[in-house]
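Incident review: delayed structure delivery

Summary: a single-chain prediction request sat in the queue longer than the usual turnaround. Root cause was a stuck worker, restarted by the on-call engineer. No data loss occurred. The affected request and its eventual output are reproduced below so the record is complete for anyone auditing the incident later.

Affected input:
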Amino acid sequence: MPPLQAHITLFADKPIGKVNRWVFGNNMLGYQKGGWPHAEPVYHDRGAGIWDPERRRPVPEMMAIAKNTGLSVARYPGGCGVHLFDWKKTVGPLESRPEQLFGLPEFLRCCEAMGAVPLITLADYHGTAQDAADLVEYLNASSDVRHPWAQLRARDGRRRPWNVLWFEYGNETEHGDHVSRRMSPREYAENYLRYRRAMKAVDNRIKLGAVVATGFPNLNEWALPVLQRTGKEVDFVIHHSYIPHYSREDGIPPAEELFALALACLDQIQAYYDELRRLLRETTGRDNVPIAVTEFNGHFVQEKPVPYRHTLGNALLNAEMLRVFLNPRNRILMANFWQFCNEYWGMVKGYVHLGERLVKRPQYYPFEFYHHHFGEELVDVQVDSPRFEVEGGYGVAPAKGKGQRGGAAGAPIKPAEVWRIQPVAGVKQRTENGVLAVEFGGGEDVNYYHARVVLPVKPNTLYRLIGWVKTENLTSSRGACFQIGDARGWLATRSAAITPEVIGTSDWTRVEVEYRTLPDTREVEVLARRLEGGGAVSGKAWYRDVQIQEMVPHTFPAVPYLSAIASRRGRREVYAMLVNKHLSLPVQVEVEVRGFSPRGANLWVLTGERVDSTNEQNPNAVSVTHRALGSVGRNFTFELPPHSLAALQIE
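Output delivered after worker restart:
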């Protein structure tokens, strides 16, 4: 088949904002032994490969790679490992912390070596506001007798202050500490204000971020109550961008279909930031509260047929996310890819101390492209391209035609049967007048899923589950909720969604969640749930009035196969970053340049044989080629291969 035809117009004389290089940040891992079950010596002693404890220095090879990505903001100590993290165990003489050789001073030395701004995440389920104030003193106060923590910093080899200004209060706090506790939005907001005031009393320059969303949940559930309480004081808010949500191990749907779906999510992300900006204006009275996206990646949690998180397709998805983060209207303060090296997600793999070759995975290359082949000021660009449509799924909304608003369709569907109950040790269950009553004995961390109803549904259709839950003295951080999923079960389909949880003592509370059925689904099961992971549970829960409602989903417009973002460096160079999302056809790109007189052009292209190609076995399977386009005028053409990222430089 002939290539697709697309046209881009670069308006070199129409600047629209500065290129915010803080969106090219990353995450560094310093997991603490005893504070996170996945902590191993390679994390708490070596920072997942960036620190050499034998020579007591950053690993030069890793620092060079970090610099080559333009790594601007480095986040520490890493994700959910921060919940119970005790920073005071990461400082002081090495002999006093033999199982934390990669501590806070070592992380900051790596930041210096990389030229990165440090971002430190505070523990949300360990410590006090005074501990946070002590941290600021350690980092930023003068090392005199008035400041014992700063004196410890001097003994750690740093007499002058580190001047760390950026902090987060917690990481994905809304989902709990993975052990036994989970804060309410109000409790989190009160803690945030307490921590912020204590920290600013030590150094008024510091900025503290507040967690508002992980993934793309309803902003009314957590973000709204947090912002209603903190809005007048909040310095910035924190979002983690993970989409799509895919965890199947059977290769269904095929990679081409899955990545076409993933690459259709960008309007959906933009709409979410538009809604978050609206909420920020309403709750804070300010239009300048920035958003920090301190984790982002494609959420592919699987290994077979290949680990999709390490594929060319995921590199293209991350390049597209960067395009959204760079949009000035979103006021993105910073963005941090999850994460830099090794562990499960690293863009670089290999340990120098083991003599391993350092392999750049595909998701490394968008950052290298932006560092070397992009300007300092954004300029306007228009794209005219053929489009494609997707039905939606795995957290991605449909994209068709011109798009349409969603809503309810037809009458609600109620169960035709009573709850089917299976016995479970330590739990009493009964039904009365359609209400399921459950009492937990208190001895175990029960994973409760033993009452279900089944309802008929249509395949590949969006439904909203609505139900009511009441609790009495329900202990632990995991509460009562409903789960809707394919009736064949989670283990068979990996397809389900869970409503918000109700904890403690609460009157009847309406909960709801949306769920899209699989292409071959004929029935769904609704389970009365209490998930394990919150500690031993006692108390009572009641469940009633379950129903599902077919929904017409909010549909976004069909997606252009070619996307572009453009910039300039002074009057000397114009750049464009392009993604061809067609997974089997090349795109013939016609470029029109306005407000600039081109002399020549160069093109760098990242691609591979397939969209699911990885560098796991062959480190050059996904690689970069350079092509000199030679002398060009105001109009010229070139061809982009399928599933590719390209950096265009015009001189």
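Verification: The longest helix spans residues 266-284.
Action items: add queue-age alerting; document worker restart procedure.
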